[in-house]
UniProtKB/TrEMBL annotation:
Membrane spanning stretches: 37-59
All copies of domain Thioredoxin-like fold, residue ranges: 126-273
InterPro entries the record matches: Thioredoxin-like_fold (IPR012336), Thioredoxin-like_sf (IPR036249)
Name the UniProt record assigns to this protein: Thioredoxin
Alphabetized Gene3D superfamilies for the sequence: Glutaredoxin
Superkingdom of this protein's organism: Bacteria
Keyword hit for Transmembrane: yes
Record keywords, A-Z: Membrane, Transmembrane, Transmembrane helix
Length: 288
């Protein structure tokens, strides 16, 4: 019986076997590379999780060292704010001490936010602007760059008072608690050198693109903007960190979810829908 497919020769069989073996080796090598890549990705993911956990623990540990009660700076309010009354003055503090343990945690944070102790000026008086701001917040830096000079002019003209509620919301993303440390520095300047407060505010948020600072750098910046040299000890001693911790906790309890959050005469200004200067000018007109 004849056939059109003669049996492969020994040389052909050997070549075919070699080709199959090469294909198997290539497949095994590819599988090994994929496995190695998956292992590396898994290790990388684990490292990222560990780093995030370490950062979180550092932040929590640093905050845990801060007392729940403490002193209040000049200009301090019962909500943890600093009331600025002119371009170079702050108000008398309304309380001498804050204590987080006296804050009552709600079952659920209110929505919309209902900040405590908002100042609403009486007819004929300068209207009040309350700002929830975080030094490590890019949108707060943008807000200050856009409206800081205008707010200072309103203050100089006697048209407004401004309460800065400097919070540490973004400590969660900083291993050094920069938000709270910088807020403490602001409180130190308000307490010891109120005339330098607004200049320090402008410099501090203007520094945002350059990143976080050490306490010594915060002190240097404050002094360069007119604060007394004694402010360095106040900053380094975390003198008003309990005050910042109190302001942060109170803001969270009151449903203030982010920064900047702006309130004019007790009413929130939605920056996504409202023009801030227009909202202020309308409030001024309504309060005459």
């Amino acid at each position: 019986m004849s056939t059109n497919n003669p049996r492969p020769s020994k040389a052909e069989r050997t070549a075919s076997a070699r080709e199959k073996a090469a294909q198997m080796r290539a497949a095994q090598e590819a599988a090994a590379k994929r496995k190695s890549l998956f292992v590396k990705l898994g290790v990388l993911a684990a490292v990222i999780v560990v780093i995030a956990l370490v950062v979180t623990l550092i932040v929590q540990n640093n905050n845990a060292k801060i007392e729940d009660s403490g002193a209040v700076p000049q200009g301090g309010t019962a909500a943890g704010g600093i009331m600025v009354t002119s371009a170079d003055t702050v108000a008398e503090k309304t309380i001498d001490k804050v204590d987080i343990k006296k804050l009552e945690a709600p079952d659920e944070a209110p929505a919309p936010a209902t900040p405590r102790d908002l100042t609403v000026a009486e007819k004929g008086e300068p209207i009040n602007i309350a700002l929830y701001v975080d030094v490590n917040c890019v949108h707060c830096a943008d807000f200050e760059a856009t409206y800081g000079d205008q707010m200072q002019q309103w203050l100089a003209d006697g048209k407004v008072t401004i309460e800065y509620r400097n919070v540490g919301y973004l400590d969660r993303g900083s291993a050094t608690n920069f938000s709270s440390r910088a807020a403490n520095a602001l409180a130190c300047v308000a307490d010891e050198s109120p005339a330098a407060y607004l200049g320090f505010v402008k410099a501090l948020w203007g520094h945002y693109p350059e990143g976080e600072m050490k306490n010594a750098e915060l002190a240097d910046m404050a002094i360069q903007n007119g604060a007394a040299e004694s402010v360095a000890d106040c900053i380094d001693d975390d003198k008003f960190r309990p005050f910042v911790k109190y302001a942060t906790t109170a803001g969270q309890y009151d449903g203030v979810a982010g920064t900047p959050s702006i309130f004019v005469q007790g009413k929130e200004v939605d920056l996504a829908k409202q023009d801030f200067p227009t909202a202020v000018e309308e409030a001024m007109a309504a309060n005459k």
